[in-house]
Amino acid sequence: MNKEIYNINSSVRTEIQGELLRIAEDNNIRILYACESGSRAWGFASPESDYDIRFIFLHPTSWYLSVLPQDDGMDLFIDKELDINGWDIRKVLRLMMKSNITAFEWLQSPIVYQTDEDFKAAIWSLSQHFFQARSSIQQYLSLAGNAYRRISEESEINVQKYLYVMRPLLAAMWIAQHKSSAPMTFAELLPLLKPFSNIEAIVMELWEKALLPNEKDSIKPIQELNDFIQKEIVKCNSIADGMEESAVRADMLDAFFRMVIQTYNGDY
Fold it and tell me: Which of 18, 32, 63, 238 has its CB surrounded by the most CB atoms within 10 Å?
């Protein structure tokens, strides 16, 4: 598969960037980073897939000084095609401390709509201190297991639904082998199937079908693939159970948070 699967039509990109600008102005925030998540970023979106836009933002300093609870997320559905969701930088850092896989994925997206390169480089470097292999495997296996349970009893299965199982499963397998955060894109994870040539061929065929306009077409369950999924979930769970979690330093996150406020708001 070539990199064209990550291309976004220029008019759509312009529309998305315009929406991000409007959101920033309407809510008095600064967007530090915005990317595509979901099937378009994973690399198996069909022509009909919607756009899952995700962003990290910063409020004015005074917003963080309130004693009252604050809403640190934004969920916006502009239309049936644009699903836009944003997290405040403090929320991102709190989730990063828990090795939340979503935070790691956003920063690896192959489709970026807006970014401050210094911020992106700094937060990615920071994130490496908080990656926990055990927790990350468990999070990915939860996604894979839930997706598999939804299709395991079906007599006809949507092609793309199989990929929704395989991508988090492969991410868990990656972490189990490499002890590092998994790549976001499906293409980077697929080499893990090289030792399983039959499964690799099945998954490659499913991937090719998922990219077609008729990706909603259903297929019969593939028992060989189902057996592989079940086996690898058990195997990765066993590997995760034997891993130790390392201590985290919240002071590093506090220092980064203060640096971001000082750099972009000019005060602290």
Answer: 32
